[in-house]
Amino acid sequence: MYPVTGCIGVEGFDNKLLGALLEALEAEARNPPDPSRGEVRLEIHNNTLRICLSARDLSAARTLVNAYLSLVAVVLDAVAAAGGDNGSEASPRTGEQAS
């Protein structure tokens, strides 16, 4: 087993939405389902939400990445479905620019 560390950056959205994402994800980070598999740190830096993980192995890292990206997608989809302004011209799901 080799430990895995890394960060994912979520950018292209306004600070208000990034703050809401941070708040939503912090609950999961504070209460992970299996703390022995790894930990996640969250921060906003230079208009980018950084999701940094330290996992005990590659499988645990993949699980954390998938879980957090899924949570981000759910929040962005909910904002879009509610007709909210996500602070970006890009589609929340694909990142493609609106025409």
Overview of this protein structure:
The protein has 99 residues and is an alpha+beta fold. The chain has one domain (4-81): TATA-Binding Protein (2-Layer Sandwich), CATH 3.30.310.50. The relative contact order is 0.22. The protein is elongated and about 45 Å long. The chain has a 3-stranded antiparallel beta sheet with strand order 1-3-2. It has helices spanning 15-30, 58-81; strands at 4-11, 38-45, 48-55. Strand 2 and strand 3 form a beta hairpin.
Low-confidence stretches: none
The CATH class name reads Alpha Beta
Taken from the alpha-carbon principal axes, the silhouette is elongated
Number of domains: 1
Strand content: 15-25%
Q: State the order of secondary-structure elements, H for helix, E for strand.
A: EHEEH
Rg measurement, Å = 14 Å
State the distance separating the first and last CA atoms: 47 Å
Number of strands: 3
CATH topology-level fold name: TATA-Binding Protein
Q: Supply the CATH architecture.
A: 2-Layer Sandwich
Within the largest sheet, what's the order of strands?
Answer: 1-3-2
Q: For this structure, what is the CATH homologous superfamily?
A: Alpha-D-phosphohexomutase, C-terminal domain
**Percentage of residues in helical conformation:** 40-55%
> Strand pairing plus helix content: what structural class?
alpha+beta
Report the sheet with the most strands, covering strand number, pairing sense and barrel closure. Answer: 3 strands, antiparallel
Provide mean pLDDT, rounded. 87
Compute the number of helices. Answer: 2
